[in-house]
Design brief:
418 residues; Growth Hormone, Chain: A; 78% helix
Protein backbone atom coordinates (compact mmCIF):
# COMPACT_ATOMS: atom_id res chain seq x y z
CA UNK A 1 0.00 0.00 0.00
CA UNK A 2 1.35 3.40 -0.93
CA UNK A 3 0.69 6.58 0.93
CA UNK A 4 -1.70 7.58 -1.74
CA UNK A 5 -3.87 4.68 -0.73
CA UNK A 6 -3.89 5.41 2.94
CA UNK A 7 -6.33 7.56 4.70
CA UNK A 8 -8.67 8.30 1.80
CA UNK A 9 -11.10 9.99 4.17
CA UNK A 10 -9.61 12.23 6.86
CA UNK A 11 -11.23 14.69 9.24
CA UNK A 12 -11.56 18.13 7.69
CA UNK A 13 -9.17 20.66 9.19
CA UNK A 14 -10.54 24.21 9.61
CA UNK A 15 -9.07 26.77 7.23
CA UNK A 16 -7.91 28.97 10.10
CA UNK A 17 -5.99 26.06 11.64
CA UNK A 18 -4.40 25.26 8.30
CA UNK A 19 -3.32 28.88 7.78
CA UNK A 20 -1.78 29.02 11.26
CA UNK A 21 -0.01 25.69 10.78
CA UNK A 22 1.36 26.43 7.30
CA UNK A 23 2.40 29.94 8.35
CA UNK A 24 4.29 28.66 11.39
CA UNK A 25 5.98 25.80 9.58
CA UNK A 26 6.79 28.08 6.66
CA UNK A 27 8.45 30.58 9.01
CA UNK A 28 10.83 28.04 10.53
CA UNK A 29 11.65 26.64 7.08
CA UNK A 30 12.43 30.21 6.01
CA UNK A 31 15.32 30.18 8.50
CA UNK A 32 16.75 27.03 6.93
CA UNK A 33 16.53 28.56 3.46
CA UNK A 34 18.32 31.70 4.62
CA UNK A 35 21.14 29.81 6.31
CA UNK A 36 21.77 27.43 3.44
CA UNK A 37 21.92 30.21 0.82
CA UNK A 38 23.64 32.91 2.87
CA UNK A 39 27.17 32.38 1.54
CA UNK A 40 26.54 33.48 -2.06
CA UNK A 41 26.14 37.21 -1.39
CA UNK A 42 28.86 37.53 1.26
CA UNK A 43 31.38 35.08 -0.28
CA UNK A 44 33.62 37.87 -1.65
CA UNK A 45 33.54 39.56 1.78
CA UNK A 46 34.50 36.33 3.58
CA UNK A 47 37.23 35.59 1.03
CA UNK A 48 38.73 39.05 1.53
CA UNK A 49 38.40 39.22 5.34
CA UNK A 50 39.61 35.68 6.08
CA UNK A 51 41.87 35.10 3.01
CA UNK A 52 39.81 32.15 1.72
CA UNK A 53 40.27 30.69 -1.78
CA UNK A 54 37.56 29.20 -4.02
CA UNK A 55 38.04 25.66 -2.66
CA UNK A 56 37.60 26.89 0.91
CA UNK A 57 34.55 28.96 0.00
CA UNK A 58 33.06 25.94 -1.76
CA UNK A 59 33.75 23.74 1.28
CA UNK A 60 32.33 26.40 3.62
CA UNK A 61 29.05 26.50 1.75
CA UNK A 62 28.82 22.76 1.08
CA UNK A 63 29.51 21.72 4.69
CA UNK A 64 25.99 22.87 5.58
CA UNK A 65 24.57 20.47 3.01
CA UNK A 66 26.86 17.58 4.01
CA UNK A 67 25.83 17.75 7.67
CA UNK A 68 22.20 18.31 6.64
CA UNK A 69 22.29 15.18 4.46
CA UNK A 70 24.12 13.12 7.08
CA UNK A 71 21.39 13.94 9.61
CA UNK A 72 18.60 12.62 7.41
CA UNK A 73 18.72 8.92 8.37
CA UNK A 74 18.58 9.50 12.15
CA UNK A 75 16.04 12.26 11.49
CA UNK A 76 13.81 9.86 9.56
CA UNK A 77 13.83 7.45 12.49
CA UNK A 78 13.15 10.28 14.94
CA UNK A 79 10.25 11.65 12.89
CA UNK A 80 8.52 8.28 12.79
CA UNK A 81 9.25 7.48 16.47
CA UNK A 82 8.96 10.82 18.30
CA UNK A 83 7.05 13.10 15.94
CA UNK A 84 7.84 16.26 13.98
CA UNK A 85 7.31 18.81 16.77
CA UNK A 86 9.96 17.43 19.11
CA UNK A 87 12.41 17.15 16.24
CA UNK A 88 11.90 20.79 15.24
CA UNK A 89 12.40 22.05 18.79
CA UNK A 90 15.64 20.10 19.32
CA UNK A 91 16.99 21.14 15.94
CA UNK A 92 16.18 24.78 16.66
CA UNK A 93 18.56 24.77 19.64
CA UNK A 94 21.36 23.35 17.47
CA UNK A 95 20.68 25.94 14.75
CA UNK A 96 20.88 28.81 17.25
CA UNK A 97 24.23 27.55 18.56
CA UNK A 98 25.63 27.19 15.04
CA UNK A 99 24.45 30.63 13.94
CA UNK A 100 25.98 32.38 16.97
CA UNK A 101 29.23 30.45 16.48
CA UNK A 102 29.31 31.58 12.84
CA UNK A 103 28.93 35.22 13.87
CA UNK A 104 31.88 34.92 16.29
CA UNK A 105 34.26 32.99 14.01
CA UNK A 106 37.64 34.47 13.12
CA UNK A 107 39.14 31.56 11.16
CA UNK A 108 37.94 29.45 8.19
CA UNK A 109 37.80 26.23 10.24
CA UNK A 110 35.46 27.70 12.85
CA UNK A 111 33.23 29.11 10.11
CA UNK A 112 33.09 25.64 8.54
CA UNK A 113 32.30 23.98 11.90
CA UNK A 114 29.53 26.51 12.50
CA UNK A 115 28.07 25.78 9.07
CA UNK A 116 28.04 22.10 10.02
CA UNK A 117 25.96 22.86 13.12
CA UNK A 118 23.64 25.04 11.06
CA UNK A 119 23.10 22.13 8.67
CA UNK A 120 22.24 19.67 11.44
CA UNK A 121 20.00 22.25 13.10
CA UNK A 122 18.12 22.96 9.88
CA UNK A 123 17.84 19.33 8.85
CA UNK A 124 14.20 18.83 9.87
CA UNK A 125 12.66 22.20 8.98
CA UNK A 126 11.28 20.82 5.71
CA UNK A 127 10.92 17.11 6.42
CA UNK A 128 9.06 17.56 9.72
CA UNK A 129 6.38 19.80 8.18
CA UNK A 130 6.01 17.39 5.25
CA UNK A 131 5.54 14.50 7.67
CA UNK A 132 2.75 16.49 9.35
CA UNK A 133 1.07 17.31 6.04
CA UNK A 134 1.33 13.69 4.90
CA UNK A 135 -0.75 12.35 7.80
CA UNK A 136 -3.16 15.24 8.35
CA UNK A 137 -4.28 16.05 4.81
CA UNK A 138 -5.67 14.12 1.86
CA UNK A 139 -3.01 12.81 -0.56
CA UNK A 140 -4.28 14.93 -3.47
CA UNK A 141 -3.60 18.07 -1.39
CA UNK A 142 -0.02 17.12 -0.57
CA UNK A 143 1.64 18.69 -3.65
CA UNK A 144 -0.24 21.95 -3.06
CA UNK A 145 0.86 22.05 0.58
CA UNK A 146 4.45 21.25 -0.42
CA UNK A 147 4.31 24.13 -2.89
CA UNK A 148 3.02 26.48 -0.21
CA UNK A 149 5.67 25.29 2.26
CA UNK A 150 8.48 25.78 -0.25
CA UNK A 151 7.08 29.06 -1.50
CA UNK A 152 6.68 30.57 1.97
CA UNK A 153 9.93 29.14 3.24
CA UNK A 154 11.79 30.39 0.20
CA UNK A 155 11.27 33.90 1.53
CA UNK A 156 14.41 32.98 3.46
CA UNK A 157 16.25 32.65 0.15
CA UNK A 158 15.10 36.17 -0.73
CA UNK A 159 16.42 37.41 2.61
CA UNK A 160 19.78 35.80 1.78
CA UNK A 161 20.16 38.02 -1.29
CA UNK A 162 19.53 41.77 -1.38
CA UNK A 163 18.40 42.09 2.27
CA UNK A 164 21.54 40.25 3.45
CA UNK A 165 23.66 42.54 1.27
CA UNK A 166 21.97 45.64 2.71
CA UNK A 167 22.31 44.37 6.27
CA UNK A 168 25.96 43.46 5.74
CA UNK A 169 26.65 46.94 4.39
CA UNK A 170 24.81 48.55 7.33
CA UNK A 171 25.80 46.51 10.39
CA UNK A 172 28.21 43.85 9.09
CA UNK A 173 27.70 40.15 8.48
CA UNK A 174 28.51 39.21 12.08
CA UNK A 175 25.77 41.34 13.64
CA UNK A 176 23.41 40.13 10.93
CA UNK A 177 23.88 36.50 11.98
CA UNK A 178 23.33 37.35 15.63
CA UNK A 179 19.97 38.77 14.56
CA UNK A 180 19.24 35.59 12.61
CA UNK A 181 19.93 33.49 15.71
CA UNK A 182 17.25 35.49 17.55
CA UNK A 183 14.81 34.85 14.69
CA UNK A 184 15.50 31.09 14.92
CA UNK A 185 14.65 31.18 18.63
CA UNK A 186 11.43 33.11 17.97
CA UNK A 187 10.39 30.63 15.25
CA UNK A 188 10.92 27.76 17.69
CA UNK A 189 8.61 29.45 20.18
CA UNK A 190 5.94 29.68 17.46
CA UNK A 191 6.29 25.96 16.77
CA UNK A 192 5.92 25.17 20.47
CA UNK A 193 2.74 27.25 20.69
CA UNK A 194 1.01 26.51 17.38
CA UNK A 195 1.82 22.92 16.40
CA UNK A 196 -0.47 20.43 18.06
CA UNK A 197 0.82 16.89 17.84
CA UNK A 198 -1.09 13.90 19.07
CA UNK A 199 -0.32 10.28 18.39
CA UNK A 200 -0.20 10.44 14.60
CA UNK A 201 -1.25 7.33 12.67
CA UNK A 202 2.26 6.59 11.40
CA UNK A 203 4.10 7.03 14.70
CA UNK A 204 5.12 3.82 16.40
CA UNK A 205 6.62 4.90 19.71
CA UNK A 206 7.03 1.24 20.72
CA UNK A 207 9.11 0.39 17.65
CA UNK A 208 12.54 -0.98 18.59
CA UNK A 209 15.75 0.53 17.24
CA UNK A 210 16.33 -2.62 15.19
CA UNK A 211 12.85 -2.28 13.68
CA UNK A 212 13.61 1.36 12.85
CA UNK A 213 16.77 0.35 10.98
CA UNK A 214 14.84 -2.41 9.22
CA UNK A 215 12.36 0.27 8.11
CA UNK A 216 15.20 2.22 6.47
CA UNK A 217 16.29 -0.89 4.61
CA UNK A 218 12.70 -1.45 3.51
CA UNK A 219 12.45 2.12 2.25
CA UNK A 220 15.70 1.64 0.30
CA UNK A 221 14.17 -1.39 -1.44
CA UNK A 222 11.24 0.68 -2.72
CA UNK A 223 11.06 0.37 -6.53
CA UNK A 224 12.44 3.41 -8.43
CA UNK A 225 14.08 4.90 -5.32
CA UNK A 226 17.58 4.99 -6.84
CA UNK A 227 16.52 6.79 -10.01
CA UNK A 228 14.49 9.30 -8.03
CA UNK A 229 17.46 9.78 -5.66
CA UNK A 230 19.68 10.68 -8.62
CA UNK A 231 17.13 13.21 -9.85
CA UNK A 232 17.05 14.73 -6.37
CA UNK A 233 20.86 15.02 -6.48
CA UNK A 234 20.77 17.16 -9.60
CA UNK A 235 17.58 19.20 -9.24
CA UNK A 236 17.97 21.44 -6.20
CA UNK A 237 21.74 21.71 -6.54
CA UNK A 238 21.21 23.60 -9.80
CA UNK A 239 19.43 26.42 -7.98
CA UNK A 240 21.83 26.58 -5.03
CA UNK A 241 24.84 26.52 -7.34
CA UNK A 242 23.73 29.97 -8.57
CA UNK A 243 21.91 31.65 -5.69
CA UNK A 244 23.64 29.96 -2.78
CA UNK A 245 27.27 30.06 -3.91
CA UNK A 246 28.76 31.09 -7.27
CA UNK A 247 26.18 33.61 -8.45
CA UNK A 248 27.65 36.34 -6.22
CA UNK A 249 31.32 35.83 -7.16
CA UNK A 250 30.35 35.43 -10.84
CA UNK A 251 28.50 38.74 -10.85
CA UNK A 252 31.44 40.47 -9.17
CA UNK A 253 34.29 38.86 -11.10
CA UNK A 254 32.70 38.91 -14.56
CA UNK A 255 30.31 41.88 -14.48
CA UNK A 256 31.94 44.02 -11.77
CA UNK A 257 28.88 44.26 -9.50
CA UNK A 258 29.33 45.38 -5.89
CA UNK A 259 27.73 43.86 -2.76
CA UNK A 260 24.38 45.60 -3.10
CA UNK A 261 24.03 45.08 -6.86
CA UNK A 262 24.82 41.39 -6.80
CA UNK A 263 22.36 40.97 -3.93
CA UNK A 264 19.62 42.60 -5.99
CA UNK A 265 20.19 40.31 -8.99
CA UNK A 266 20.24 37.19 -6.82
CA UNK A 267 17.04 38.50 -5.22
CA UNK A 268 15.36 38.26 -8.63
CA UNK A 269 16.54 34.67 -9.08
CA UNK A 270 15.28 33.73 -5.61
CA UNK A 271 11.96 35.44 -6.29
CA UNK A 272 11.70 33.37 -9.47
CA UNK A 273 12.05 30.24 -7.38
CA UNK A 274 9.26 31.30 -5.04
CA UNK A 275 6.90 32.05 -7.91
CA UNK A 276 7.91 28.78 -9.52
CA UNK A 277 7.00 26.82 -6.38
CA UNK A 278 3.44 28.12 -6.53
CA UNK A 279 3.17 27.66 -10.31
CA UNK A 280 4.90 24.29 -10.77
CA UNK A 281 3.75 22.72 -7.48
CA UNK A 282 0.18 21.91 -8.65
CA UNK A 283 1.19 20.78 -12.15
CA UNK A 284 1.04 17.08 -11.28
CA UNK A 285 -2.71 17.58 -10.87
CA UNK A 286 -2.92 19.47 -14.17
CA UNK A 287 -1.07 16.78 -16.15
CA UNK A 288 -2.38 13.85 -14.11
CA UNK A 289 1.15 12.58 -13.43
CA UNK A 290 4.43 13.58 -11.77
CA UNK A 291 6.89 12.96 -14.58
CA UNK A 292 5.73 15.52 -17.15
CA UNK A 293 6.27 18.63 -14.97
CA UNK A 294 9.61 17.21 -13.77
CA UNK A 295 10.82 16.79 -17.35
CA UNK A 296 9.65 20.30 -18.24
CA UNK A 297 11.44 21.80 -15.24
CA UNK A 298 14.62 19.80 -15.80
CA UNK A 299 14.84 20.72 -19.47
CA UNK A 300 14.26 24.44 -18.96
CA UNK A 301 16.65 24.61 -16.00
CA UNK A 302 19.33 22.95 -18.14
CA UNK A 303 18.56 25.42 -20.95
CA UNK A 304 19.02 28.41 -18.62
CA UNK A 305 22.31 27.08 -17.25
CA UNK A 306 23.43 26.11 -20.73
CA UNK A 307 22.89 29.66 -21.95
CA UNK A 308 25.17 30.95 -19.17
CA UNK A 309 27.79 28.34 -20.10
CA UNK A 310 27.73 29.08 -23.82
CA UNK A 311 26.90 32.78 -23.88
CA UNK A 312 30.07 34.17 -22.31
CA UNK A 313 29.69 37.79 -21.23
CA UNK A 314 26.03 38.25 -22.14
CA UNK A 315 23.94 41.41 -22.30
CA UNK A 316 22.83 42.15 -18.74
CA UNK A 317 19.13 41.61 -19.51
CA UNK A 318 19.84 38.12 -20.91
CA UNK A 319 22.10 37.22 -18.02
CA UNK A 320 19.43 38.23 -15.50
CA UNK A 321 16.82 36.27 -17.47
CA UNK A 322 19.01 33.16 -17.21
CA UNK A 323 19.41 33.65 -13.44
CA UNK A 324 15.64 34.04 -13.03
CA UNK A 325 15.08 31.05 -15.32
CA UNK A 326 17.24 28.83 -13.12
CA UNK A 327 15.28 30.02 -10.10
CA UNK A 328 11.82 29.60 -11.61
CA UNK A 329 12.21 26.31 -13.45
CA UNK A 330 14.20 24.52 -10.74
CA UNK A 331 11.12 24.83 -8.51
CA UNK A 332 9.90 21.52 -9.97
CA UNK A 333 11.55 20.00 -6.89
CA UNK A 334 8.09 20.49 -5.36
CA UNK A 335 6.71 17.81 -7.66
CA UNK A 336 9.71 15.56 -7.04
CA UNK A 337 8.94 15.56 -3.32
CA UNK A 338 5.33 14.63 -3.94
CA UNK A 339 6.42 11.89 -6.35
CA UNK A 340 8.75 10.46 -3.72
CA UNK A 341 6.09 10.55 -1.02
CA UNK A 342 3.70 8.62 -3.27
CA UNK A 343 6.09 5.67 -3.47
CA UNK A 344 6.22 4.88 0.26
CA UNK A 345 3.70 3.23 2.60
CA UNK A 346 2.35 5.59 5.23
CA UNK A 347 4.41 4.14 8.08
CA UNK A 348 7.64 4.81 6.15
CA UNK A 349 6.86 8.33 4.95
CA UNK A 350 9.26 10.00 7.40
CA UNK A 351 12.15 7.69 6.61
CA UNK A 352 11.41 7.63 2.88
CA UNK A 353 11.26 11.40 2.50
CA UNK A 354 14.39 11.93 4.55
CA UNK A 355 16.28 9.38 2.43
CA UNK A 356 15.33 11.32 -0.68
CA UNK A 357 16.22 14.57 1.05
CA UNK A 358 19.71 13.12 1.53
CA UNK A 359 19.88 13.19 -2.25
CA UNK A 360 18.64 16.78 -2.40
CA UNK A 361 21.20 18.08 0.07
CA UNK A 362 23.94 15.61 -0.82
CA UNK A 363 23.75 16.79 -4.41
CA UNK A 364 24.41 20.36 -3.29
CA UNK A 365 27.38 19.19 -1.22
CA UNK A 366 28.85 17.35 -4.21
CA UNK A 367 28.34 20.13 -6.74
CA UNK A 368 29.57 22.91 -4.46
CA UNK A 369 32.64 21.02 -3.30
CA UNK A 370 33.62 19.86 -6.78
CA UNK A 371 32.90 23.24 -8.37
CA UNK A 372 35.15 24.96 -5.83
CA UNK A 373 38.07 22.74 -6.79
CA UNK A 374 37.28 23.20 -10.50
CA UNK A 375 37.29 26.98 -10.22
CA UNK A 376 40.57 26.84 -8.31
CA UNK A 377 42.16 25.13 -11.33
CA UNK A 378 42.03 28.51 -13.05
CA UNK A 379 44.46 31.22 -11.90
CA UNK A 380 42.86 34.13 -10.06
CA UNK A 381 43.88 37.67 -11.00
CA UNK A 382 43.58 40.10 -8.08
CA UNK A 383 41.24 37.64 -6.38
CA UNK A 384 38.93 37.31 -9.42
CA UNK A 385 38.48 34.05 -11.33
CA UNK A 386 38.13 34.06 -15.15
CA UNK A 387 34.96 33.58 -17.15
CA UNK A 388 36.11 30.15 -18.39
CA UNK A 389 36.02 28.81 -14.82
CA UNK A 390 32.38 29.72 -14.33
CA UNK A 391 31.36 28.54 -17.81
CA UNK A 392 32.85 25.11 -17.09
CA UNK A 393 31.01 24.85 -13.77
CA UNK A 394 27.67 25.77 -15.40
CA UNK A 395 28.26 23.27 -18.23
CA UNK A 396 29.06 20.49 -15.75
CA UNK A 397 25.74 21.10 -14.00
CA UNK A 398 23.88 20.88 -17.33
CA UNK A 399 25.46 17.48 -17.91
CA UNK A 400 24.46 16.39 -14.40
CA UNK A 401 20.84 17.36 -15.06
CA UNK A 402 20.72 15.51 -18.37
CA UNK A 403 22.13 12.28 -16.91
CA UNK A 404 19.65 12.45 -14.01
CA UNK A 405 16.80 13.13 -16.43
CA UNK A 406 17.65 10.02 -18.44
CA UNK A 407 17.59 7.90 -15.29
CA UNK A 408 14.27 9.45 -14.28
CA UNK A 409 12.67 8.12 -17.47
CA UNK A 410 12.38 4.70 -15.82
CA UNK A 411 10.86 5.88 -12.51
CA UNK A 412 7.48 4.40 -11.58
CA UNK A 413 4.72 7.01 -11.52
CA UNK A 414 1.74 5.94 -9.38
CA UNK A 415 -0.49 8.71 -10.72
CA UNK A 416 0.12 7.74 -14.32
CA UNK A 417 -0.50 4.10 -13.49
CA UNK A 418 -3.83 5.07 -11.96
Amino acid sequence: MTSSDAGASRPAIPLSATIALVGTLGSIYMVSQFLRNSIGVIAPNLASELSMNASEIGLLSSTFFFSFAAAQIPLGIALDRYGPKRCMLVCSVIAVIGTIMFSLSTAPWTLIAARGLMGVGSSCFLMAPLALYAVRYAPDRFSMLVGMQLGLGSTGTLLATAPLAWSTAAIGWRATFVTVAAIVAFSAILVALVVREGREPHHDHNETFRESITGIAEALRTPSILQLFLMQLAAYSSFVLIVGLWGGPYLTHIYGYDLTSRGEILFLAAAGQIVGSFVLGPLDRVFGNYKTPVFIGTGLTALSLGALAIGGVMPVAWMIACFVGVGFFSAYTTVLIAHGKSLFPQRLVGRGLTLLNMGTMGGVFLTQTVSGFVIDLFPAVNGAYPLQAYRLVFAMQVGFLLVAGLAYLTVRDPRRAA
